[in-house]
Amino acid sequence: MSEVQRRIEQALGAPVKRQGALSGGCIGEVYRVDLGSGDTVVVKVADGSDGTLDIEGYMLRYLAEHSDLPVPAVRHSEPDLLIMDFLPGDSRFGGREQEHAAELLASLHSVQAEQYGLERDTLIGSLPQPNGWMDTWIDFFRERRLLHMARAAKREGRFGGDTLRRVERFAEHLDEWLLEPPHPSLLHGDVWTTNVLAAKGRITGFIDPAIYYGHPEIELAFSTLFGTFGDAFFRHYEAIRPIPDGFFDTRRDIYNLYPLLVHVRLFGGGYLGGVERTLQHHGY
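-> structure tokens emitted (284 positions)
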């Protein structure tokens, strides 16, 4: 019996019947595990001794407790081991699936807080995501998102000082383009294709969150960066929660600087071109 199997059985009190690898592990290995009880779970095992899977477990539990967003139930979490229910479906979205996703995210965005941020820091992918509370959205996006991620990218050698200075100058003028929302909204934080599952015209689950309270527009922007959702999603979302003018023309690209900087840190300079284009378009 492997150590992972022993720990699964100890945590759940049920024997492991079958175990197979799944794709998509950003910070370790991911398995589908069929239990002797008849249940199926997903098990994540972190690499090394500094695991952060307990943070992912916290985020999934937070979404389950504070929203109606479908997320896998967490059965066990600690820094190097996360066990959660297996959700059916795949990451292909026709019109019905996109409309259902719009309903679910519009409902999520109706969950409010008094400030921007969260009670604790979280992760986006494997990267730390600071969430200290702030009173205004534009300040939060500037400090906790753009500047935090750009400065970390510079420290790690992903780009040079000139690019960082351009991001910093641009960030000083965000209020020329961005809007303050009516209230802070709960966000999944990492809505892109493989983090959403669907089957038979319905969304079956959202996984791998990066939660905090912010402006829904950053969530909507991220969903367009890699073509996750399209017109069917946005028509239905706008019918529920209207999107102010200027989002698609201007604000979407500004908000997508954050996930682009995340990808620069995770995967390298191939994503730097998108950052450069947005900075140049706004005169930086």
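The longest strand covers residues 28-35.
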